[in-house]
Amino acid sequence: MRLVKNLSLLLVVLAVLVVTLLFSLENQQSVSLTFTGWSAPSLPVSFYVVVAFLLGLLLGPLWGVMIVRRNNKRPRK
Q1: Number of domains observed in the structure of the chain
Q2: What is the rounded distance in angstroms from the CA atom of residue 23 to the CA atom of residue 50?
Q3: Which letter, b or e, does each residue of 20-29 get, where b requires 16 or more Cβ atoms within 10 Å of its Cβ?
Q4: 20-74 pLDDT tens trace
Q5: Does pTM top 0.70 for this prediction?
């Protein structure tokens, strides 16, 4: 059963990597982002989307852990 789980995880990771690679290759148009007067360098739109996706992958679980820890500290009624 562990082998099936590991192979499934490997297939999902490979699928995400392939989709990300294809997305990056298809979206090479350069864009420059401006936010409150600060201007980012002109980079492909795929770069900004992939960075936003990766930040979500990192920050989402951290946010969840913070919520669980906060809920565990509350006194139960």
Answers
A1: 1
A2: 9
A3: eeeeeeeeee
A4: 899 989 988 999 989 899 998 999 999 999 999 899 999 999 999 998 888 887 7
A5: no
Closest CA to 50 of 14, 28, 23: 23
Q: Where are the beta strands (DSSP E) in the chain?
A: 30-31, 34-35, 38-39, 43-44
Tokens matching residue 65: 């852990």
Amino acid at 28: Q
Closest to 24 in 3D by CA, of 32, 33, 16, 34: 16
Length of the chain: 77
Query: How big is the CA angle at 66 (ends 64 and 68), to the nearest 5 degrees?
Result: 70
Task: For residues 73 and 30, give the distance between their C-alpha atoms in angstroms, rounded to a whole number.
Answer: 47
Tokens of 56: 């979500």
Domain that holds residue 8: 2-73
